[in-house]
Amino acid sequence: MEPEDFDSEDKEMLSWDINDMKLPQNVKKTDWFQEWPDSYEKHIYSSEDRNAQRHLSSWAMRNTNNHNSRILKKSCLGVVVCSRDCSAEEGRKIYLRPAICDKARQKQQRKRCPNCDGPLKLIPCRGHGGFPITNFGKHDRRFIFLQSKGEHDHPKPETKLEAEARRTMKKVHTASASVPLKLKESPEAKIKHTLPR
Ligand SMILES: [Zn+2]
Ligand SMILES: [Zn+2]
């Protein structure tokens, strides 16, 4: 394809940066929500997209202070693994979601591996020049812009759904049959961040 085949609008769609004063508004097609944005990805979502509004990610990301209040910044917390590198059924590895809250995360690292009872350890994310990957989100009129900076250098943590399913399984094993099973909401699920407008 000749470079001329790109018209100026297409170029605008590809070359924006979250810090631009003017983000493209002539968007013909918005992206499907991406659960695992990686490798310097940029996405333009519809402002109606619920997941984009909440700035969700399947990576364990926590809010980070940003000098620009119009841009929401989140950084990756990595993944919690078994220090014995054990394998569960079907050779699956233990890749737990780091808790978002600092205190809970410290507590989490004192827990034992759910598979072999070995000590757990946190692998921090160093995918952005030795620092955690940051995702930037900005709500601008009809669109939500998402820019990911860096490439995750660690395995994917289990998703929130997988983490909940595992906790439920554990409870089924330990709870007596007469006790009704209640899905406990994880603390991170309660914190629903909405992008600043
Ligand atoms: Zn283990
Ligand atoms: Zn990461």
TrEMBL record:
Naturally occurring in which organism (per UniProt): Zalophus californianus
GCM domain segment(s): 14-169
Broad class of the protein's primary localization: nucleus
The name this protein goes by in its record: Chorion-specific transcription factor GCMa-like
Pfam families hit by this protein: GCM
Domain of life the protein comes from: Eukaryota
Intracellular or extracellular location(s): Nucleus
UniProtKB keywords: Developmental protein, DNA-binding, Nucleus, Transcription, Transcription regulation
Biased composition, class Basic and acidic residues, residue ranges: 149-167, 182-191
Molecular-function GO term, any one: RNA polymerase II cis-regulatory region sequence-specific DNA binding
Entry's Gene Ontology BP terms: cell differentiation involved in embryonic placenta development; gliogenesis
Disordered: annotated segments: 149-197
Lineage: Eukaryota, Metazoa, Chordata, Craniata, Vertebrata
GO cellular component, one term: nucleus
Gene that this polypeptide is encoded by: LOC113934112
